[in-house]
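Q: Given only this backbone (332 positions), what sequence would you predict?
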């Protein structure tokens, strides 16, 4: 193999730069020329690329974001776009394309492979951790840390005022950040899509919990962690309803995109480095149409489509602990 290219696509995640670095250095080590397309699939369509050398990736392992920039490219769904991309890749002599991103980006890679004879390999990079077939995705551990740091700070003011705080975390439609941040911050309650009940039930549940805890320990603060997109009218509205029903002041805090930024924690840097190196070595072995992943410390390749066809489950033991502790705290 003489030439490899890569791109970062979809929501950026801390550790993407560490991954780019590993791909570049591993490729160079095997004597392969390496290119980076900028702005995700848009760069592939616009031929916006750059050659990458060891110097290009010096001093980036600790940086959040992605030096290649990212984008969501809706037009890439069309056959015409995939054909243009294939032509551009061939014109540059690229033999393998590595795509760092989430399941949407992998669908793009699979789509491209229907029109291009080169190899495509996906590397799971998203803070949401919602990709089946890998223990963790690049960026996930950092996002939990960022959420946790904020929740710890909110707890100080929540305690001072004996208020309820609703903390909205990211996750699109997955509760990995929510559940883990809730456990690690000893939140009173967590609402995640995988465990969600009807809005009436959820509301009743929170109110009952607050009433029970109030009886037991008097005025207190409460932290409720909730995944984005879960409450139909939004968390600001939910906070108003809770204030009204419980007579305890409730404030919403939407953590938002802050969870996507910042310097990656060590687990994300290590995972990104492993997956980046392994993706290049897998390309050299002729793998294509696969996502590289790590399961129980074993590096693997699995068909790209499994990443969106199968749903990744929350850790059932973590769910049980959260439920057990929640029930125990409100016991009279
Ligand atoms: O996929 C990562 C993610 O940050 C999700 O958690 C969130 O729902 C979405 O991206 C936000 O996307 P955008 O940056 O386009 O608003």
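A: Predicted residues:
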């Amino acid at each position: 193999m003489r030439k490899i290219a890569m791109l970062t696509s979809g929501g950026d995640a801390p550790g993407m730069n560490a991954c780019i670095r590993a791909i570049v250095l591993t490729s160079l080590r095997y004597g392969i020329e390496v290119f980076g397309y900028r702005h995700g699939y848009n760069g592939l369509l616009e031929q916006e690329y750059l050659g990458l050398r060891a110097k290009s990736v010096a001093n980036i392992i600790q940086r959040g974001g992605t030096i290649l920039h990212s984008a969501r490219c809706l037009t890439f769904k069309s056959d015409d776009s995939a054909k243009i991309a294939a032509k551009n890749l061939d014109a540059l002599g690229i033999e393998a394309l590595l795509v760092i991103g989430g399941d949407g980006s992998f669908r793009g890679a699979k789509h491209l492979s229907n029109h291009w004879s080169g190899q495509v390999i996906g590397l799971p990079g998203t803070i949401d951790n919602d990709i089946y077939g890998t223990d963790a995705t690049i960026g996930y551990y950092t996002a939990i840390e960022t959420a946790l740091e904020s929740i710890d700070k909110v707890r100080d003011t929540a305690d001072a005022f004996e208020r309820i705080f609703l903390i909205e975390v990211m996750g699109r439609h997955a509760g990995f950040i929510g559940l883990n941040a809730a456990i690690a911050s000893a939140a009173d309650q967590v609402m995640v899509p995988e465990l969600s009940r009807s809005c009436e039930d959820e509301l009743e549940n929170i109110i009952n919990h607050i009433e029970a805890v109030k009886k037991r320990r008097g005025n207190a603060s409460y932290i409720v962690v909730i995944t984005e997109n879960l409450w139909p009218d939004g968390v600001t509205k939910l906070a108003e309803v809770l204030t009204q029903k419980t007579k305890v002041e409730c404030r919403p805090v939407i953590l938002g995109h802050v969870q996507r930024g910042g310097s990656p924690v060590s687990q994300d840097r290590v995972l990104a480095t492993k997956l980046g190196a392994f993706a290049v070595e897998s390309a050299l072995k002729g793998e294509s149409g696969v996502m590289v992943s790590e399961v129980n410390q074993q590096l693997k390749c699995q068909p790209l489509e499994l990443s969106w066809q199968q749903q990744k489950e929350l850790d059932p033991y973590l769910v049980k602990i959260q439920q057990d502790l929640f029930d125990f705290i409100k016991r009279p």
